[in-house]
Write a structure and sequence with these properties.
Layout lengths: L11 H13 L2 H9 L10 E5 L4 H12 L3 E5 L8 H7 L5 E3 L7 H12 L5 E4 L3 H9 L1 H4 L4 E4 L2 H12 L7 E3 L4 H24 L7 E5 L3 H12 L3 E5 L3 H9 L3 E2 L2 H4 L5 E4 L9 H6 L4 E5 L9 H6 L1 E8 L2 E6 L4 E5 L5 H4 L6 H20 L8 E3 L2 H14 L9 H8 L3
Parallel strand pairs: 1-2, 1-4, 2-3, 4-5, 5-6, 6-15, 7-8, 7-10, 8-9, 10-11, 11-14
Antiparallel strand pairs: 12-13, 13-14
Helix pairs in contact: 1-3, 1-4, 2-16, 3-16, 5-6, 9-10, 9-16, 16-17
């Protein structure tokens, strides 16, 4: 065992089996791994990563490790680590893992700081806690970073804010903004896995329930679509008039949270903002309403407000806490208000993370190959990389598509 800090090293065999299963369902990453295996393009490169320690993440980390990288893996959520996966990765010599399920806030941020102190050449993040720690607390280390990747909408927003203030210390690839990421990972991945988490935590019947989805970005779209498919009567709340209009024309009811709070049975936040569901909404809710969050941080459902208006709380199922309000009603909070799909379930299916992590791996190579050539900005994934990942995915699914003939290309490029 290397210098990893994990809680259940005895689970490494179970972790090995999980990772093997994920590798079978992530053929794009495996093809890319094999393509660059002999070259060892990351030989000697130090990578610090703050990611959900799941079997899918393990496929990415193992790919980077066999390419020659030395890796420090920390979590991006105190409750999303799969301990068996962490134990499996910790057995690999050039990978250090500091993550376990149920970390305290202090332990979580210590792991992030330890990842920063690894003095990485490349930073891979999911939510930007590691990026922000490097910028705010360790700028001298950050100045020597070649570049970084960011996996989430929330993280990209934070990094764009740094860039706007001219404080970004290294170039970052917004992997989240790749079409082969957000159109599939955010929509189909979160859509399915969030409902998976709700069902594992509660085992409720979705059909016939009024489900309120806060936010109609790609995550909210995916959740609303899957709820509708399972028979829920879906309500969308929004602050963006265009997204609200889109939700209406997609067949959903749209109203304010004040209105929705009075009639909803299930509430799922997916906005990336704070205090989406507050005390005034909670006090309006039906007895027995369920609160869940699918945004990156545990700030969308105001747990602070929930605590203030409650007389007592009790964990009645794993990842389900019943709050008894002072007005006598009961509300059920799932996963402490953290990402319900990762706290109460296993996160996105391997097949959808196949494209996201293919983009992560290729973006690391892009940063290395363009060392010193990029400005300190947030960049989108190169379009040819996006297209390449999509083509590989179709190929692994046994699907062929048409190609333009030379005449068709000429026609489309002509003004006549």
């Amino acid at each position: 065992m290397n210098s990893s800090k994990i809680k259940k090293p005895e689970l490494f065999n179970e972790g090995n089996k999980k990772i093997e299963f994920a590798e079978m369902h992530m053929p794009v990453v495996m093809k890319i791994r094999e393509r660059f295996l002999r070259e060892k393009p990351l030989d000697g490169v130090k990578i610090s990563a703050a990611l959900h320690v799941t079997k899918e993440t393990a496929v990415l980390i193992k790919t980077l490790s066999v390419w020659g990288a030395n890796i420090f893996l920390s979590p991006s959520n105190p409750l999303s680590t799969q301990d068996d996966v962490a134990a499996s990765l910790a057995k690999i010599d050039n990978i250090v893992v500091e993550a376990w399920r149920g970390m305290s806030s202090e332990e979580y941020f210590m792991a992030i700081k330890d990842a920063a102190n690894f003095k990485p050449d490349i930073v891979i993040d999911d939510g930007a806690d590691l990026h922000i720690t490097l910028h705010e607390e360790m700028p001298k280390i950050a100045e020597k970073v070649i570049g970084g990747n960011e996996e989430t909408t929330t993280g990209v927003i934070r990094l764009k804010a740094l860039e706007k203030e001219n404080r970004l210390l290294y170039p970052v690839i917004a992997v989240n903004n790749a079409l082969t990421k957000f159109m599939f990972d955010n929509r189909y991945g979160t859509g399915q896995s969030s409902i998976d988490g709700i069902l594992r935590a509660t085992n409720i019947l979705i059909a016939g329930k009024r489900a309120v989805v806060a936010g109609y970005g790609w995550v909210g779209r995916g959740i609303a679509l899957r709820l509708k498919g399972m028979g829920a009567r879906v309500i969308v709340t929004e602050v963006d008039p265009i997204k609200a209009l889109e939700a209406v024309m997609d067949g959903f009811d749209v109203m304010t949270m004040e209105e929705a709070s009075k009639i909803g049975d299930i509430f799922i936040t997916a906005t990336g903002d704070i205090d989406v569901i507050r005390a005034e909404h909670m006090l309006n809710m039906k007895d027995g309403a369920i609160l869940a969050n699918a945004g990156h941080f545990n700030v969308e459902v105001s747990v602070k407000d929930l605590e203030k208006i409650s007389d007592s709380k009790e964990e009645i199922r794993e990842n389900t806490v019943k709050y008894t309000l002072r007005n006598g009603k009961h509300l059920f909070l799932l996963g402490e208000g953290r990402l319900v799909n990762l706290v109460a379930a296993e996160g996105h299916p391997s097949e959808v993370m196949d494209m996201s992590f293919a983009n992560q791996a290729l973006s690391v190579l892009y940063l290395i190959n363009n060392k010193g050539k990029l400005e300190k900005k947030v960049y989108n994934v190169p379009s040819d990389q996006d297209q390449y990942v999509a083509k590989l995915k179709l190929e692994t699914m046994g699907i062929k598509i048409d190609e333009l003939t030379p005449e068709q290309v000429k026609y489309l490029e002509s003004y006549k």
